[in-house]
Amino acid sequence: MPAKCTLPLPEGKHMPSFLTMARWFLLLLLSSAGVAQAVSLRIGSAFDPQTMDPHAIALLYHSRVAYQIHESLVGRDEKFKPEPALALSWQMTAPTRWTFKLRPGVSFHDGSAFTADDAVFSLERALAPPSQRAFQLKGVTAVRKIDALTIEIQLEAPDAVLPEKLQFVSIMSKAWSEKHGVQRAQDFNARQETHAVRHANGTGPFRLERYEPDVRTTLRRHPAWWGWADKRHGNLEQVSFVTIRSDATRLAALATGEVDLVLDPPYQDIQRLKADPRIRLAQTADIGQQYFTFDQSRDELQDSDVKGRNPFKDLRVRQAVYHALNVPLIVDKVLRGQAQPTGAFLSPLVDGSPAELDRRLPFDPARARALLAEAGYPKGFSVTLDCVNVAWRENVCQAAAAMLTQVGIRTTLRSSPSNQFFPKLTQGTASFVEFGWTASPDAWNSLNGLFRTYDRSGLGSFNAGRYSNPKLDVLIDAIRIEPDLTRRRAMVATVLRMVADDLPYVPLYRRTLTWAMLRKVTLVQWPNDTLELRWVRVQ
Protein backbone atom coordinates (compact mmCIF):
# COMPACT_ATOMS: atom_id res chain seq x y z
CA MET A 1 0.00 0.00 0.00
CA PRO A 2 1.29 3.50 -0.76
CA ALA A 3 1.99 5.81 2.14
CA LYS A 4 -0.86 8.06 3.15
CA CYS A 5 -0.88 11.25 1.09
CA THR A 6 -0.16 14.36 3.15
CA LEU A 7 0.02 16.80 0.24
CA PRO A 8 -1.24 20.23 1.45
CA LEU A 9 -3.89 22.12 -0.42
CA PRO A 10 -2.64 25.14 -2.42
CA GLU A 11 -2.76 28.32 -0.41
CA GLY A 12 -3.24 31.91 -1.44
CA LYS A 13 -5.46 34.96 -1.14
CA HIS A 14 -7.43 34.08 -4.22
CA MET A 15 -8.80 30.88 -5.62
CA PRO A 16 -6.03 29.06 -7.50
CA SER A 17 -6.21 28.96 -11.26
CA PHE A 18 -7.51 25.93 -13.10
CA LEU A 19 -3.92 25.07 -14.22
CA THR A 20 -2.63 25.23 -10.65
CA MET A 21 -5.44 22.99 -9.41
CA ALA A 22 -4.83 20.55 -12.27
CA ARG A 23 -1.17 20.30 -11.33
CA TRP A 24 -2.04 19.73 -7.67
CA PHE A 25 -4.54 16.98 -8.48
CA LEU A 26 -1.96 15.32 -10.74
CA LEU A 27 0.56 15.26 -7.89
CA LEU A 28 -2.13 13.85 -5.59
CA LEU A 29 -2.99 11.16 -8.11
CA LEU A 30 0.65 10.14 -8.58
CA SER A 31 1.24 10.04 -4.85
CA SER A 32 -1.85 7.92 -4.27
CA ALA A 33 -0.78 5.55 -7.02
CA GLY A 34 2.49 4.91 -5.22
CA VAL A 35 4.73 6.37 -7.95
CA ALA A 36 8.25 6.45 -6.49
CA GLN A 37 10.19 9.66 -6.41
CA ALA A 38 13.62 9.70 -8.07
CA VAL A 39 16.21 7.88 -5.96
CA SER A 40 19.12 10.16 -5.17
CA LEU A 41 22.46 9.80 -3.43
CA ARG A 42 24.37 12.68 -1.85
CA ILE A 43 28.08 12.07 -1.28
CA GLY A 44 30.16 14.26 1.00
CA SER A 45 33.88 14.45 0.23
CA ALA A 46 36.81 16.64 1.21
CA PHE A 47 37.95 16.75 -2.42
CA ASP A 48 36.77 18.40 -5.60
CA PRO A 49 37.32 16.47 -8.86
CA GLN A 50 39.20 19.48 -10.35
CA THR A 51 38.07 18.96 -13.97
CA MET A 52 35.70 16.89 -16.08
CA ASP A 53 38.33 16.21 -18.77
CA PRO A 54 39.02 12.47 -18.30
CA HIS A 55 42.57 12.63 -19.71
CA ALA A 56 43.69 15.84 -17.98
CA ILE A 57 44.75 14.32 -14.65
CA ALA A 58 45.17 10.90 -13.07
CA LEU A 59 44.03 11.50 -9.51
CA LEU A 60 41.83 9.34 -7.30
CA TYR A 61 39.50 12.23 -6.49
CA HIS A 62 39.06 12.98 -10.20
CA SER A 63 38.52 9.33 -11.12
CA ARG A 64 35.74 8.96 -8.54
CA VAL A 65 33.60 11.32 -10.63
CA ALA A 66 34.93 11.21 -14.18
CA TYR A 67 34.59 7.43 -14.53
CA GLN A 68 30.92 7.45 -13.67
CA ILE A 69 30.47 9.57 -16.81
CA HIS A 70 33.05 8.00 -19.11
CA GLU A 71 33.85 4.37 -19.75
CA SER A 72 36.93 2.51 -20.89
CA LEU A 73 37.31 -0.41 -23.25
CA VAL A 74 38.04 -2.67 -20.26
CA GLY A 75 36.44 -2.39 -16.82
CA ARG A 76 36.48 -4.30 -13.53
CA ASP A 77 33.83 -6.38 -11.81
CA GLU A 78 32.76 -6.46 -8.14
CA LYS A 79 35.82 -8.56 -7.29
CA PHE A 80 38.11 -6.01 -8.97
CA LYS A 81 38.84 -8.43 -11.82
CA PRO A 82 38.96 -7.26 -15.47
CA GLU A 83 35.70 -7.51 -17.39
CA PRO A 84 34.39 -6.23 -20.73
CA ALA A 85 33.17 -2.64 -20.86
CA LEU A 86 33.07 -0.80 -24.20
CA ALA A 87 35.04 -3.68 -25.68
CA LEU A 88 33.16 -6.98 -25.71
CA SER A 89 36.27 -9.04 -26.38
CA TRP A 90 39.96 -8.75 -27.19
CA GLN A 91 42.63 -10.96 -28.65
CA MET A 92 46.36 -10.81 -29.30
CA THR A 93 46.39 -11.46 -33.05
CA ALA A 94 50.18 -11.09 -33.38
CA PRO A 95 53.00 -10.52 -30.87
CA THR A 96 52.66 -6.75 -31.29
CA ARG A 97 49.00 -6.45 -32.26
CA TRP A 98 45.75 -6.64 -30.31
CA THR A 99 42.25 -6.58 -31.80
CA PHE A 100 39.31 -5.26 -29.78
CA LYS A 101 35.68 -6.00 -30.73
CA LEU A 102 33.53 -3.09 -29.55
CA ARG A 103 30.12 -3.26 -27.92
CA PRO A 104 27.25 -2.52 -30.34
CA GLY A 105 24.26 -0.36 -29.49
CA VAL A 106 26.11 2.01 -27.15
CA SER A 107 25.13 5.69 -27.15
CA PHE A 108 26.78 8.78 -25.78
CA HIS A 109 24.84 11.03 -23.47
CA ASP A 110 23.94 13.33 -26.38
CA GLY A 111 22.32 10.37 -28.17
CA SER A 112 25.05 9.81 -30.78
CA ALA A 113 26.30 6.28 -31.41
CA PHE A 114 29.63 5.01 -30.10
CA THR A 115 31.84 3.62 -32.88
CA ALA A 116 35.43 2.67 -33.61
CA ASP A 117 36.11 6.27 -34.66
CA ASP A 118 35.51 7.40 -31.06
CA ALA A 119 37.75 4.67 -29.64
CA VAL A 120 40.62 5.51 -31.99
CA PHE A 121 40.26 9.23 -31.33
CA SER A 122 40.16 8.76 -27.56
CA LEU A 123 43.19 6.50 -27.32
CA GLU A 124 45.17 8.88 -29.51
CA ARG A 125 44.03 11.81 -27.35
CA ALA A 126 45.08 9.97 -24.18
CA LEU A 127 48.50 9.28 -25.72
CA ALA A 128 49.21 12.86 -26.77
CA PRO A 129 50.58 15.61 -24.49
CA PRO A 130 49.43 17.12 -22.19
CA SER A 131 47.35 14.05 -21.26
CA GLN A 132 48.28 12.57 -17.89
CA ARG A 133 47.02 9.15 -18.96
CA ALA A 134 49.79 8.58 -21.50
CA PHE A 135 51.87 6.66 -18.96
CA GLN A 136 49.36 3.78 -19.11
CA LEU A 137 49.72 3.44 -22.88
CA LYS A 138 53.50 3.40 -23.20
CA GLY A 139 54.46 1.13 -26.08
CA VAL A 140 51.34 1.82 -28.15
CA THR A 141 52.53 2.96 -31.58
CA ALA A 142 49.24 3.15 -33.46
CA VAL A 143 45.50 2.68 -33.11
CA ARG A 144 43.49 2.03 -36.23
CA LYS A 145 39.92 1.30 -37.20
CA ILE A 146 39.21 -2.08 -38.79
CA ASP A 147 35.47 -1.61 -39.17
CA ALA A 148 32.68 0.28 -37.39
CA LEU A 149 33.01 -1.88 -34.27
CA THR A 150 36.58 -3.18 -34.40
CA ILE A 151 39.89 -1.49 -33.64
CA GLU A 152 43.47 -2.67 -33.68
CA ILE A 153 46.17 -1.51 -31.26
CA GLN A 154 49.72 -1.82 -32.52
CA LEU A 155 52.68 -2.01 -30.13
CA GLU A 156 56.39 -1.44 -30.41
CA ALA A 157 56.95 -4.70 -28.49
CA PRO A 158 54.77 -7.52 -27.15
CA ASP A 159 52.59 -6.68 -24.15
CA ALA A 160 50.73 -9.60 -22.61
CA VAL A 161 48.76 -7.47 -20.15
CA LEU A 162 47.74 -4.57 -22.39
CA PRO A 163 43.98 -4.97 -21.66
CA GLU A 164 44.56 -4.38 -17.92
CA LYS A 165 46.16 -1.03 -18.71
CA LEU A 166 43.09 0.27 -20.51
CA GLN A 167 40.91 0.82 -17.45
CA PHE A 168 40.64 4.56 -16.75
CA VAL A 169 41.62 5.42 -20.34
CA SER A 170 38.28 7.01 -21.11
CA ILE A 171 36.42 6.98 -24.39
CA MET A 172 35.12 10.36 -25.55
CA SER A 173 32.94 11.36 -28.48
CA LYS A 174 35.12 12.43 -31.41
CA ALA A 175 32.36 14.60 -32.90
CA TRP A 176 31.60 16.30 -29.57
CA SER A 177 35.29 16.96 -28.92
CA GLU A 178 35.78 18.47 -32.36
CA LYS A 179 32.65 20.59 -32.02
CA HIS A 180 33.88 22.08 -28.74
CA GLY A 181 37.56 22.39 -29.63
CA VAL A 182 38.84 19.83 -27.13
CA GLN A 183 40.65 17.43 -29.43
CA ARG A 184 43.59 17.63 -27.00
CA ALA A 185 43.45 17.06 -23.26
CA GLN A 186 43.28 20.05 -20.96
CA ASP A 187 46.69 21.25 -19.77
CA PHE A 188 45.83 20.93 -16.09
CA ASN A 189 49.24 22.04 -14.83
CA ALA A 190 48.94 25.28 -16.81
CA ARG A 191 45.40 25.77 -15.44
CA GLN A 192 44.01 25.83 -18.94
CA GLU A 193 40.27 26.43 -19.29
CA THR A 194 38.51 24.39 -21.96
CA HIS A 195 34.94 23.29 -22.65
CA ALA A 196 35.81 19.85 -21.22
CA VAL A 197 36.62 21.30 -17.80
CA ARG A 198 32.93 21.85 -16.95
CA HIS A 199 31.16 19.73 -19.57
CA ALA A 200 31.26 16.08 -20.53
CA ASN A 201 29.71 13.63 -22.98
CA GLY A 202 30.47 10.03 -22.11
CA THR A 203 28.80 6.66 -22.49
CA GLY A 204 28.75 5.82 -18.77
CA PRO A 205 25.79 5.04 -16.50
CA PHE A 206 25.57 8.67 -15.38
CA ARG A 207 25.72 11.92 -17.30
CA LEU A 208 27.02 15.23 -16.05
CA GLU A 209 24.24 17.64 -15.21
CA ARG A 210 26.29 20.40 -13.57
CA TYR A 211 29.80 20.94 -12.26
CA GLU A 212 30.29 23.76 -9.75
CA PRO A 213 34.01 23.69 -8.78
CA ASP A 214 34.65 23.33 -5.05
CA VAL A 215 30.89 23.23 -4.41
CA ARG A 216 28.98 20.38 -6.04
CA THR A 217 29.00 18.00 -9.00
CA THR A 218 25.58 16.70 -10.04
CA LEU A 219 25.12 13.57 -12.13
CA ARG A 220 21.91 12.09 -13.51
CA ARG A 221 21.16 8.54 -14.65
CA HIS A 222 21.79 7.86 -18.36
CA PRO A 223 18.64 5.81 -19.16
CA ALA A 224 20.08 4.46 -22.41
CA TRP A 225 23.20 3.02 -20.75
CA TRP A 226 23.81 -0.46 -22.12
CA GLY A 227 24.36 -2.04 -18.70
CA TRP A 228 21.18 -1.24 -16.79
CA ALA A 229 19.56 -4.58 -17.63
CA ASP A 230 22.19 -6.34 -15.49
CA LYS A 231 20.54 -7.26 -12.19
CA ARG A 232 23.74 -6.46 -10.28
CA HIS A 233 23.16 -2.78 -10.85
CA GLY A 234 21.50 -0.29 -8.54
CA ASN A 235 18.62 2.15 -8.64
CA LEU A 236 20.12 5.64 -8.51
CA GLU A 237 18.56 8.38 -10.60
CA GLN A 238 20.63 11.33 -9.39
CA VAL A 239 23.94 11.73 -7.56
CA SER A 240 25.50 14.80 -5.97
CA PHE A 241 29.16 14.95 -4.96
CA VAL A 242 29.25 17.72 -2.38
CA THR A 243 32.63 19.23 -1.50
CA ILE A 244 32.82 19.67 2.29
CA ARG A 245 36.42 20.26 3.35
CA SER A 246 35.75 20.44 7.09
CA ASP A 247 35.77 17.00 8.74
CA ALA A 248 33.30 18.06 11.42
CA THR A 249 30.90 19.62 8.92
CA ARG A 250 31.06 16.55 6.68
CA LEU A 251 30.11 14.22 9.52
CA ALA A 252 27.44 16.60 10.77
CA ALA A 253 25.89 16.50 7.30
CA LEU A 254 25.85 12.69 7.47
CA ALA A 255 24.32 12.70 10.95
CA THR A 256 21.51 15.04 9.88
CA GLY A 257 20.85 13.23 6.61
CA GLU A 258 22.01 16.11 4.42
CA VAL A 259 24.39 13.63 2.79
CA ASP A 260 23.98 9.86 2.57
CA LEU A 261 27.60 8.79 2.22
CA VAL A 262 31.01 10.10 3.32
CA LEU A 263 34.00 8.65 1.48
CA ASP A 264 36.67 10.07 3.78
CA PRO A 265 35.44 10.18 7.38
CA PRO A 266 38.00 11.53 9.88
CA TYR A 267 39.96 8.80 11.61
CA GLN A 268 39.20 10.04 15.11
CA ASP A 269 35.49 9.48 14.52
CA ILE A 270 35.51 5.97 13.07
CA GLN A 271 35.02 4.17 16.39
CA ARG A 272 32.12 6.48 17.23
CA LEU A 273 30.58 5.88 13.81
CA LYS A 274 30.78 2.11 14.36
CA ALA A 275 28.60 2.52 17.45
CA ASP A 276 26.01 4.73 15.71
CA PRO A 277 22.95 2.58 14.82
CA ARG A 278 22.06 4.95 11.97
CA ILE A 279 25.41 4.45 10.22
CA ARG A 280 27.01 1.53 8.42
CA LEU A 281 30.73 1.39 7.60
CA ALA A 282 32.39 -0.32 4.66
CA GLN A 283 36.08 -1.09 5.19
CA THR A 284 38.80 -2.75 3.14
CA ALA A 285 42.59 -2.73 2.75
CA ASP A 286 43.99 -0.11 0.38
CA ILE A 287 45.82 -1.27 -2.74
CA GLY A 288 47.58 2.09 -2.65
CA GLN A 289 49.79 3.75 -0.07
CA GLN A 290 51.48 6.97 1.06
CA TYR A 291 55.10 8.02 0.57
CA PHE A 292 57.61 10.78 1.08
CA THR A 293 59.82 11.48 -1.90
CA PHE A 294 62.81 13.76 -2.45
CA ASP A 295 64.17 16.13 -5.07
CA GLN A 296 67.01 14.19 -6.69
CA SER A 297 67.49 16.28 -9.82
CA ARG A 298 68.69 19.70 -8.64
CA ASP A 299 72.25 20.27 -7.50
CA GLU A 300 71.06 22.67 -4.80
CA LEU A 301 68.12 22.03 -2.50
CA GLN A 302 65.51 24.76 -2.86
CA ASP A 303 64.45 26.83 0.17
CA SER A 304 67.21 25.35 2.34
CA ASP A 305 70.06 26.77 4.41
CA VAL A 306 72.42 24.35 2.63
CA LYS A 307 73.89 26.11 -0.39
CA GLY A 308 75.54 24.51 -3.37
CA ARG A 309 74.45 21.00 -2.39
CA ASN A 310 71.39 18.79 -2.40
CA PRO A 311 71.51 16.52 0.68
CA PHE A 312 68.82 14.22 -0.74
CA LYS A 313 71.18 13.00 -3.46
CA ASP A 314 73.07 11.14 -0.71
CA LEU A 315 71.59 7.74 0.17
CA ARG A 316 72.65 8.20 3.79
CA VAL A 317 70.43 11.28 4.10
CA ARG A 318 67.46 9.42 2.66
CA GLN A 319 68.11 6.59 5.09
CA ALA A 320 68.29 9.15 7.92
CA VAL A 321 64.80 10.39 6.99
CA TYR A 322 63.52 6.81 7.09
CA HIS A 323 65.04 6.05 10.51
CA ALA A 324 63.78 9.37 11.94
CA LEU A 325 60.11 8.55 11.29
CA ASN A 326 58.15 6.62 13.88
CA VAL A 327 55.42 5.54 11.47
CA PRO A 328 53.78 3.03 13.86
CA LEU A 329 53.31 5.88 16.34
CA ILE A 330 51.85 8.11 13.60
CA VAL A 331 49.43 5.33 12.61
CA ASP A 332 48.44 4.77 16.24
CA LYS A 333 48.04 8.39 17.35
CA VAL A 334 47.29 10.41 14.21
CA LEU A 335 45.43 7.82 12.13
CA ARG A 336 43.87 6.10 15.16
CA GLY A 337 45.05 2.69 14.04
CA GLN A 338 43.26 2.95 10.69
CA ALA A 339 46.34 2.11 8.63
CA GLN A 340 49.17 -0.39 8.33
CA PRO A 341 52.81 0.82 8.53
CA THR A 342 54.74 -0.51 5.55
CA GLY A 343 58.26 -0.78 4.24
CA ALA A 344 57.03 -1.99 0.84
CA PHE A 345 56.86 0.24 -2.20
CA LEU A 346 53.77 -1.49 -3.60
CA SER A 347 51.00 -3.30 -1.76
CA PRO A 348 51.10 -7.12 -1.49
CA LEU A 349 47.83 -6.94 -3.48
CA VAL A 350 49.97 -5.96 -6.50
CA ASP A 351 51.17 -8.96 -8.48
CA GLY A 352 54.84 -9.68 -7.77
CA SER A 353 55.31 -7.41 -4.73
CA PRO A 354 57.53 -9.36 -2.25
CA ALA A 355 55.96 -9.90 1.16
CA GLU A 356 59.25 -9.48 3.03
CA LEU A 357 59.55 -5.85 1.90
CA ASP A 358 56.50 -4.98 3.96
CA ARG A 359 58.73 -4.82 7.08
CA ARG A 360 59.93 -1.31 7.85
CA LEU A 361 63.44 -0.27 8.80
CA PRO A 362 63.48 0.45 12.57
CA PHE A 363 62.69 3.82 14.06
CA ASP A 364 66.17 4.89 15.26
CA PRO A 365 66.81 8.63 15.80
CA ALA A 366 70.39 8.01 16.92
CA ARG A 367 71.11 6.15 13.70
CA ALA A 368 69.49 8.99 11.74
CA ARG A 369 71.80 11.57 13.36
CA ALA A 370 74.84 9.39 12.73
CA LEU A 371 73.93 8.98 9.05
CA LEU A 372 73.52 12.74 8.66
CA ALA A 373 76.96 13.30 10.20
CA GLU A 374 78.52 10.67 7.91
CA ALA A 375 76.97 12.43 4.92
CA GLY A 376 78.53 15.74 5.95
CA TYR A 377 75.57 17.32 7.73
CA PRO A 378 76.41 17.03 11.45
CA LYS A 379 74.28 20.10 12.17
CA GLY A 380 71.53 18.99 9.83
CA PHE A 381 69.82 21.25 7.32
CA SER A 382 66.46 22.91 6.65
CA VAL A 383 63.87 21.78 4.13
CA THR A 384 60.26 22.49 3.16
CA LEU A 385 57.81 19.59 3.16
CA ASP A 386 54.90 19.99 0.75
CA CYS A 387 51.57 18.42 1.67
CA VAL A 388 47.99 18.75 0.46
CA ASN A 389 45.76 20.60 2.93
CA VAL A 390 43.47 17.69 3.74
CA ALA A 391 43.21 17.18 7.49
CA TRP A 392 44.52 13.63 7.93
CA ARG A 393 47.38 14.06 5.47
CA GLU A 394 48.29 17.42 6.92
CA ASN A 395 48.27 15.96 10.44
CA VAL A 396 50.61 13.15 9.36
CA CYS A 397 52.95 15.69 7.78
CA GLN A 398 52.96 17.79 10.96
CA ALA A 399 53.91 14.78 13.08
CA ALA A 400 56.62 13.74 10.62
CA ALA A 401 58.03 17.28 10.45
CA ALA A 402 58.43 17.30 14.24
CA MET A 403 60.23 13.93 14.19
CA LEU A 404 62.58 15.01 11.43
CA THR A 405 63.37 18.28 13.19
CA GLN A 406 64.39 16.33 16.29
CA VAL A 407 67.22 14.62 14.38
CA GLY A 408 68.39 17.83 12.70
CA ILE A 409 66.36 17.92 9.48
CA ARG A 410 64.60 21.17 10.27
CA THR A 411 61.34 20.70 8.42
CA THR A 412 58.86 23.46 7.61
CA LEU A 413 55.43 22.24 6.52
CA ARG A 414 53.82 23.95 3.53
CA SER A 415 50.20 22.93 2.95
CA SER A 416 48.46 23.76 -0.31
CA PRO A 417 45.01 23.20 -1.80
CA SER A 418 44.84 20.31 -4.23
CA ASN A 419 44.80 22.49 -7.37
CA GLN A 420 48.17 23.93 -6.32
CA PHE A 421 49.63 20.81 -4.73
CA PHE A 422 49.10 18.15 -7.40
CA PRO A 423 50.88 20.04 -10.23
CA LYS A 424 54.01 20.01 -8.03
CA LEU A 425 54.01 16.22 -8.34
CA THR A 426 53.72 16.01 -12.10
CA GLN A 427 56.01 18.99 -12.72
CA GLY A 428 58.64 17.79 -10.24
CA THR A 429 58.97 21.16 -8.52
CA ALA A 430 58.89 20.12 -4.85
CA SER A 431 61.98 19.53 -2.69
CA PHE A 432 60.35 17.08 -0.29
CA VAL A 433 56.76 15.96 -0.70
CA GLU A 434 54.13 13.62 0.73
CA PHE A 435 51.83 11.92 -1.72
CA GLY A 436 49.68 8.87 -2.25
CA TRP A 437 49.59 6.40 -5.13
CA THR A 438 46.72 4.08 -6.00
CA ALA A 439 48.14 1.03 -7.74
CA SER A 440 46.47 -1.42 -10.08
CA PRO A 441 46.90 -5.20 -9.65
CA ASP A 442 49.43 -5.33 -12.47
CA ALA A 443 52.69 -3.71 -11.31
CA TRP A 444 53.92 -2.13 -14.53
CA ASN A 445 51.79 1.03 -14.42
CA SER A 446 53.06 1.78 -10.92
CA LEU A 447 56.70 0.97 -11.67
CA ASN A 448 56.60 3.11 -14.78
CA GLY A 449 54.68 5.98 -13.18
CA LEU A 450 56.74 6.21 -9.99
CA PHE A 451 60.26 4.87 -10.57
CA ARG A 452 61.05 5.14 -14.29
CA THR A 453 63.25 8.06 -15.38
CA TYR A 454 60.93 10.92 -16.35
CA ASP A 455 60.37 12.09 -19.87
CA ARG A 456 57.41 13.69 -21.60
CA SER A 457 56.47 10.59 -23.59
CA GLY A 458 54.67 8.99 -20.63
CA LEU A 459 57.62 7.61 -18.69
CA GLY A 460 57.92 8.44 -15.00
CA SER A 461 54.88 10.71 -15.14
CA PHE A 462 54.49 10.75 -11.33
CA ASN A 463 58.18 10.49 -10.48
CA ALA A 464 57.93 13.68 -8.43
CA GLY A 465 61.58 13.70 -7.32
CA ARG A 466 62.86 13.04 -10.87
CA TYR A 467 64.79 10.01 -9.60
CA SER A 468 66.77 8.23 -12.32
CA ASN A 469 68.42 4.80 -12.33
CA PRO A 470 69.26 3.48 -15.84
CA LYS A 471 69.53 -0.15 -14.63
CA LEU A 472 66.06 0.12 -13.15
CA ASP A 473 64.75 1.64 -16.38
CA VAL A 474 65.94 -1.36 -18.38
CA LEU A 475 64.14 -3.76 -16.05
CA ILE A 476 60.91 -1.73 -15.96
CA ASP A 477 60.86 -1.57 -19.75
CA ALA A 478 61.46 -5.32 -19.91
CA ILE A 479 58.54 -6.04 -17.56
CA ARG A 480 56.17 -4.29 -19.95
CA ILE A 481 56.94 -6.77 -22.74
CA GLU A 482 57.50 -9.97 -20.72
CA PRO A 483 54.69 -12.45 -21.56
CA ASP A 484 55.56 -15.14 -18.99
CA LEU A 485 53.82 -14.31 -15.71
CA THR A 486 56.28 -16.21 -13.53
CA ARG A 487 59.26 -14.37 -15.01
CA ARG A 488 57.30 -11.14 -14.89
CA ARG A 489 56.63 -11.51 -11.15
CA ALA A 490 60.31 -12.27 -10.51
CA MET A 491 61.30 -9.13 -12.43
CA VAL A 492 58.82 -7.03 -10.45
CA ALA A 493 60.32 -8.34 -7.21
CA THR A 494 63.83 -7.50 -8.43
CA VAL A 495 62.81 -3.93 -9.28
CA LEU A 496 61.19 -3.40 -5.89
CA ARG A 497 64.23 -4.74 -4.05
CA MET A 498 66.45 -2.37 -6.05
CA VAL A 499 64.14 0.50 -5.12
CA ALA A 500 64.36 -0.51 -1.47
CA ASP A 501 68.16 -0.40 -1.69
CA ASP A 502 68.24 2.97 -3.47
CA LEU A 503 65.43 4.55 -1.43
CA PRO A 504 64.13 7.24 -3.79
CA TYR A 505 60.97 7.19 -1.66
CA VAL A 506 60.26 6.52 1.99
CA PRO A 507 57.25 4.20 2.22
CA LEU A 508 54.88 5.20 5.03
CA TYR A 509 51.60 3.30 5.40
CA ARG A 510 48.58 1.81 3.67
CA ARG A 511 45.24 3.00 4.92
CA THR A 512 42.22 1.02 5.94
CA LEU A 513 39.69 2.47 3.51
CA THR A 514 36.52 3.44 5.35
CA TRP A 515 33.28 4.74 3.88
CA ALA A 516 30.46 5.80 6.22
CA MET A 517 26.87 5.73 5.00
CA LEU A 518 23.29 5.80 6.14
CA ARG A 519 21.86 2.29 6.51
CA LYS A 520 19.60 2.74 3.51
CA VAL A 521 22.67 2.67 1.23
CA THR A 522 24.24 -0.54 -0.09
CA LEU A 523 27.29 -0.58 -2.35
CA VAL A 524 30.42 -2.41 -3.51
CA GLN A 525 33.78 -1.24 -2.16
CA TRP A 526 36.88 -1.58 -4.31
CA PRO A 527 40.42 -1.52 -2.81
CA ASN A 528 41.34 1.52 -4.91
CA ASP A 529 38.98 3.80 -2.93
CA THR A 530 36.79 4.38 -5.99
CA LEU A 531 33.01 4.04 -5.76
CA GLU A 532 31.15 2.57 -8.73
CA LEU A 533 27.76 4.29 -8.69
CA ARG A 534 26.24 1.68 -11.03
CA TRP A 535 26.17 -0.79 -8.11
CA VAL A 536 24.74 1.54 -5.46
CA ARG A 537 21.23 0.94 -4.19
CA VAL A 538 19.26 3.24 -1.88
CA GLN A 539 16.24 1.76 -0.07
Question: Would you give an account of this structure?
Answer:
This protein has 15 helices and 20 strands. The chain is an alpha+beta fold and 539 residues long. Among the domains are: 70-188, Alpha-Beta Complex (Dipeptide-binding Protein, domain 1); 289-513, Dipeptide-binding Protein, domain 3 (Roll). A hairpin with a 2-residue loop joins strand 4 and strand 5 (97-102). Helix 14 (470-481) packs antiparallel against helix 15 (485-502). The chain starts with 17 loop residues before the first helix and ends with a strand.
Can you lay out the helices and strands and say which pair or pack?
Elements: H1 18-32, E1 40-45, H2 60-69, E2 74-76, E3 82-84, E4 87-94, E5 97-102, H3 116-127, E6 140-147, E7 150-155, H4 174-179, H5 195-198, E8 206-212, E9 216-221, E10 238-243, H6 247-255, E11 261-262, H7 270-275, E12 279-285, E13 289-294, H8 315-324, H9 327-333, E14 339-341, H10 365-374, E15 381-388, H11 391-406, E16 409-416, H12 418-427, E17 432-437, H13 444-451, H14 470-481, H15 485-502, E18 505-518, E19 521-522, E20 537-538
Parallel strand pairs: 1-10, 1-11, 15-16
Antiparallel strand pairs: 2-3, 4-5, 5-7, 6-7, 8-9, 9-10, 11-18, 12-18, 13-17, 13-18, 14-18, 19-20
Helix pairs in contact: 8-10, 13-14, 14-15
